Amino acid sequence: MGVASLTKVLITVMTYPHPSRGYMELVCTAGITEAGEWVRLYPVDYRYRERNQQFKKYQWIEVELEQSGAGNDNRKESRRPNLDTIRLLGKRLDTKHEWRERRAIIDRLPHFTRNQLVALHEQDKTSLGVVRPSRVLDLEVRPASEEWKPEWQTLFSQLKLFGPPQKPLRKIPYTFHYVFECEDSNGKSHTAMCEDWELGMLFLKEAERLGNDIAAAESVRERFLGELCRHDKDTRFFMGTHFPYNTWLVLGVFWPPKQIQPFLF
Predict the structure, then answer these.
(1) In the chain, which end has fewer C-beta atoms inside a 10 angstrom radius, N or C?
(2) Cβ(203)–Cβ(216) under 8 Å?
(3) C-alpha dihedral over 99, 28, 219, 133, to 10 degrees?
(4) Segments making up each domain of the chain, as ranges
């Protein structure tokens, strides 16, 4: 067990929940410390936390972290949080003045191409970082199973009989994959699945509003490609590895407006 320390973290990454035997469900959560370093908080049973512990993206929190990951997660940024110590620190950073508050944090972070980030992982096991694509080509919508795999369905059945009250957790019947290029792609595009919390929640909202999953998936594509990656947005991807496979995923999207550079005479 690692040494624990009280740490302030700006939450920047939350993924759609997935089932868990030990915690009902888990949300992959990550953020930036006051020192400007990435940390991954895992496990976090977000929807089963008390209301006063349910942080939002771009909100500072204080939490006690063990200086090592949970179980056999040895990724360099992974920390095990003491969930009972989570404390929210003020309101979330807003998007006023061209996202000034958020950019003050994110712009200071190292930015990479996807190739650079992969090379960094091979060098020192870096597993979180910011990628600024030079071009976002597509958001592919791929059909997926409508049901959780059998072992999770069995778990849900057991919890209904013996566990605490469950909160509905729908399996999203699609996966969404960004296709993009970076400055050093040399014409070869990259593809990475997006697991952003907001993408999943938008799909559920649109499926309920429209009564149609296909239309809901198209609404997600219109927003996460047509709006977040529009030509006037300074789009970045928060990318991280999927443990234990080391597959790179888009865990969140940062999409402030492009800043107009003044002309010099």
Answers:
(1) C
(2) yes
(3) 60
(4) 4-89, 111-254
Q: What global pTM score does this model have?
A: 0.92
The list of the chain residues with pLDDT below 70 reads 1-3, 69-71, 159-164, 261-265
Sheet arrangement for strand 128-131: 111-112, 128-131, 236-242, 247-254
Taking Cα atoms as reference points, which of 169, 158, 160 lies closest to residue 48? 169
Sign of CA dihedral 40, 42, 47, 48: negative
Instruction: Give CA–CA dist 159/186, Å, rounded.
Output: 50
Dump pLDDT digits (tens) for 43-62: 999 999 999 999 999 999 99
Q: How far apart are CA 48 and CA 151, in angstroms?
A: 21
Question: Would you tell me how many other CB atoms lie within 10 Å of the CB of residue 257?
Answer: 13
CATH code of 4-89, in short, is 2.40.50.140
- Two tokens, residue 151: 């072992």
- In this predicted model, what pLDDT tens digit does every residue of 97-136 receive, in sequence order? 999 999 999 999 999 999 999 999 999 999 999 999 999 9
